[in-house]
Design brief:
The protein folds into two domains: about 150 residues, Peroxidase, domain 1 (Orthogonal Bundle), CATH 1.10.520; about 120 residues, Orthogonal Bundle (Peroxidase, domain 2). The termini are far apart. The strands form two sheets. It has a three-stranded antiparallel sheet. Strands 1-2 form a two-stranded antiparallel ribbon. Helix content is about 40%, strand content about 5%. The protein contains ten helices and five strands. By secondary structure, it is mainly alpha-helical. It binds ligand DDH. Ligand DDH binds next to helix 2, helix 6 and strand 1.
Length: about 290
């Protein structure tokens, strides 16, 4: 064999659980970021890595981790995701055998589970690609737009209306940053715990346009401390979307089931897996 060929080692579930544990431990350790967790921004990295997929051309998706490179790293939608990539870099150094593409998705899986969300089954098989695989700008949703735009963007990935609404529940997590998207504030009162609160608040609060210098966004009338994007508000303006908002607001178990299914689908878009089996990782709590 030629001397420079890398040694091929098959890594098993236990190896990936070790990577999961290292990410989870780092999430606990680095609790001085934002609302006390890197979890939300890790979820957003996994989503923006995956959400570039185009079913017609088979381009984009989480296979490649092309957001490491300009121009994709500089796309407006990806502002701030460097925090998530940098957070995961020491994990990549500790486990050099995992691809960035598999690591970023495992980061999203770990963050969702550690933030008390449902189990997200996972399988490896993503290979890193170079900058020639970067996707064009404009494939991720524009927060200032509404239902027609949402359907254009998510149908392109292969999702239906129910799945669009289930995915949006991720906005229970995290916040908007004026220095990233220009928008400001969290969607819920517990932005580091995954619940169906996004749907409950969207339905039950009174929302009004915020008077400020920034982009058009809504604030809750009661506390003025929560926000909704025009793209979020569209989910209760559209009759079909709203039916699913009501279902998820009334049933957290249904939300968790549908969210887990649709996130697995999102995270696997465009990946040529060899492995059919998916693994469920234990949370840190479950291993105590
Ligand atoms: Fe989102 N999202 N997202 N989002 N998103 C933002 C933050 C977070 C839209 C716009 C924004 C999904 C769908 C949409 C998360 C997960 C997901 C921000 C603020 C904007 C703007 C960024 C910043 O300033 O830091 C729009 C528009 C859509 C849509 O139209 C559907 C989906 C599908 C997900 C997912 O994960 C499945 C998360 C988590 C955050 C919080 C990030 C953070 O740093 O906190």
């Amino acid at each position: 064999a030629s001397g420079s060929a890398p040694t091929l080692v098959n890594h098993n579930k236990a190896d990936y659980q070790k990577v999961y544990n290292a990410i989870a431990a780092r999430l606990e350790e680095k609790d001085d970021y934002d609302d006390g967790s890197y979890g939300p921004v890790l979820v957003r990295l996994a989503w923006h890595a995956s959400g570039t997929y185009d079913k017609e051309t088979g381009t984009g998706g989480s296979n490649g981790a092309t957001m490491r490179f300009a121009p994709e790293s500089d796309h407006g939608a990806n502002a701030g995701l460097k925090h998530a990539r940098d957070f995961l870099e020491p994990i990549k150094q500790q486990f050099p055998w995992i691809s960035y593409s598999d690591l970023w998705i495992l980061g999203g899986v770990c963050a969702i589970q550690e933030m008390l969300g449902p189990k997200i089954p996972y399988r490896p098989g993503r290979a890193d690609r170079d900058m020639s695989a970067c996707t064009p700008d404009g494939r991720l949703p524009d927060a200032s737009k509404t239902q027609d735009h949402l359907r254009d963007i998510f149908y392109r990935m292969g999702f239906n209306d129910q799945e669009i609404v289930a995915l949006a529940g991720a906005h229970a997590l995290g916040r908007c940053h004026t220095d990233r998207s220009g928008y400001d504030g969290p969607w819920t009162f517990s932005p580091t715990v995954l619940t169906n609160d996004y749907y409950k608040l969207l339905l039950n609060e009174k929302w009004q346009w915020r008077k400020w210098d920034g982009p058009k966004q809504l604030e809750d009338k009661t506390t003025k401390s929560l926000m909704m994007l025009p793209a979020d508000y569209a989910l209760i303006q559209d009759k079909t979307f709203k039916e699913w908002v009501v279902k998820y607001a009334n049933d957290n178990d249904l939300f968790f089931r549908d969210f887990a299914n649709v996130i697995v689908k999102l995270f696997e878009l465009g990946v040529p897996f060899k492995q059919t089996e998916r693994w469920e990782f234990k949370t840190l709590n479950e291993q105590e």
